[in-house]
Write a structure and sequence with these properties.
With about 325 residues, the protein is an alpha/beta fold. It is built from 13 helices and twelve strands. Helices cover about 45% and strands about 15% of the residues. β3, α7 and β4 form a beta-alpha-beta unit. α5 runs parallel beside α13.
């Protein structure tokens, strides 16, 4: 027979309302009571009936994750983190791809909210930076948490110091002896593209290296844009000895183009990326990159959102650390 919430309450010696508050991770429950209820839930293998739970509380117990990003590896990591946080709090997750540059973008999000009634949203870049959408969410009173937003004031979520991380990885190339260092920029509407470009410029300025406009080429965080950026750089009279790509997908495209041109990595060209998604460890040579804890960032953003929804805190913006991953794709220039 299906275990009911009332059965858990009876076994734990508390009211059904208290069991509901523990399952929803609401505030104002004694920790000893919370632990006792959770132990009974585990012992009886109780699983909440989501439909009944939603009807009884006028909540959907659903979080919607919105994205518009060509890097599937990055998105998978973030979504896995959001799902982990949802599972811990007995929430479900709705994932919706969107075109943030579409003229009816805000209306599409409006329709999604009305149709599915998510309790809150997790926004990933560039959706997290869309001013018209943010204004509409404020007007509707929709609670949201942002991953890597450009503007962090009065916002809850998570971020990493991407500018300093980019500065450090370019400094690594300089310390190896490279002076002609190119940068393939990420998408212009992403804060990440601007932060990583700023870190590249700062590292060169710190070393007294003049920035050559021809060595800075535009991409959009996709594999194909990495290929095109590399071809453009290889066509220069004086090609670079190292390329810092805006993310690992683009860096993988650079490796593909280098092989197309008969270049040996890292002997003829050093390549590094950003994010440390699985592809950085699956290509050969393995990519020197910056580890951005995307899964942790998705989990933390969702936890901040759920804390606000359950009244446990007002939520805040959490900074996470980065780490430089030195692998086989970088070496001193010839």
């Amino acid at each position: 027979m299906r275990v009911r919430l009332e059965d858990v309450a009876r076994a734990a010696g508390v009211s059904p309302k208290t069991v509901s508050r523990v399952l929803n991770d609401e505030a104002n429950v004694r920790e000893s009571t919370r632990e006792r209820v959770r132990a009974v839930v585990a012992e009886l293998n109780y699983r909440p009936h989501l439909s009944a739970r939603s009807l009884a509380s006028n909540h959907s117990y659903m979080v919607a994750t919105l994205y518009d990003n060509p890097s599937s590896s990055y998105l998978t990591e973030v979504q896995d983190g959001v799902l982990e946080a949802c599972d811990q709090r007995h929430y479900s997750m709705l994932v919706r791809p969107l075109d943030a540059e579409a003229p009816d973008f805000v209306e599409r999000v409006d329709t999604l909210i009305s149709a599915h009634r998510p309790d809150g949203l997790v926004l990933t870049p560039p959706v997290s930076d869309h001013p018209e959408l943010l204004q509409r969410l404020h007007e509707r009173g929709v609670i949201y948490a942002s991953v890597s937003p450009k503007q962090r004031a009065d916002t809850i979520g998570v971020y990493m110091d991407e500018q300093e991380a980019a500065r450090e990885i370019v400094r690594h190339l300089i310390q190896l002896g490279h002076r002609r260092i190119a940068h393939a920029i990420g998408h212009t509407v992403h804060g990440a593209g601007a932060w990583r470009l700023a870190g590249y410029r700062q590292a060169l300025a710190d070393a007294g290296i003049a920035i050559e406009p021809a060595l800075v080429v535009q991409g959009d965080f996709s594999f194909d844009s990495g290929v095109q950026a590399a071809r453009q750089l290889f066509a220069l009279d004086r090609p670079p000895t190292a390329i810092f790509a805006g993310n690992d997908d683009m860096a993988s495209g650079v490796l593909w183009a280098a092989n197309e041109h008969g270049l040996s990595i890292p002997h003829d060209l050093s390549v590094c990326g950003f994010d440390d998604v699985p592809i950085s460890r699956q290509v050969w040579p393995t990519l020197t990159t910056v580890h951005q804890p995307a899964r942790d960032m998705g989990r933390i953003a969702c936890q901040q959102l759920l804390d606000v929804l359950r009244g446990r805190s007002g939520g805040h913006m959490v900074q996470v650390p980065y780490a430089l991953k030195l692998r086989a794709s970088t070496a001193p220039p010839r």
